[in-house]
Predict the structure.
Amino acid sequence: MMKKLAGKTALITGAESGIGQSIAIEFALNGAEVIIAYFKDEAAAQQTLLTVKETGSDGMIVKADVSDEQQVDSLFKLALQRFKKINILVNSAGVRSVDKFIHELSFNEFESTVRINLFGTFLCCQNFVKHRLQQDGGGRIINITSVHEDIVSPGKTDYCASKSAIRGLSRSLAMEVADKQITVNNIAPGMIITPMNQRAVDDVNYRLELEQRIPVKKSGLPSDVAKVALFLASDDAVYVTGTTQVVDGGLSLNRAQGAR
């Protein structure tokens, strides 16, 4: 059976762990070469690469701080020296909120969240679009946001602002590049068991308490997000752009009814 991403190359930020790592492996299983961009944990990135290669696909790791323009430029330059083309970009790198009310939140803390989550997405999208236009268009951009692109929570102004802004960036960019056959879509996960939700990983009782707020009564796995990313990256989604695909077990529906 033909693999859905055979002959494609994907660059995935934050691919050393969690959702990004799961997407890298899912893409490799479906025939894609994978560029694994990581920030600090080289050993984890190497483990992702090992798993990618075990699928029979090729890959490489590149260290990059996506909030830094020069490092993002270098990331794309190194990737293109190795693979010559990039067909798919997944912006999965991100940080969680510092969990402070705005009167306690320093400018540096707010700026750091926005720089990584929003500026990093902008810089990677910009480099990707420039590259794809040189290749006469075509391509897929998938931005990992959060249900917090729409649902707000007290003490998370930095995170909610950054994720809402990515939604606006993605929709506007989708309009800009639609006639070039480049699609741009978001995936908004709910409660996914990753290092970003470490307390839920470590504390079973805490996780079970949170899961009672989710209509399906369970938290999600990174693979749940990866399968949606595979669809958006494939030719199956050629006519899908400017959307947010929510992967949350119905959490946002519950929130809309006043659940806390």
User: Anything to note?
Assistant: The first helix runs from residue 18 to 29. The radius of gyration is 18 Å. The beta strands are 9-13, 33-38, 59-63, 88-91, 139-144, 182-189, 244-247. The domain at 9-255 is CATH 3.40.50.720 (Rossmann fold).
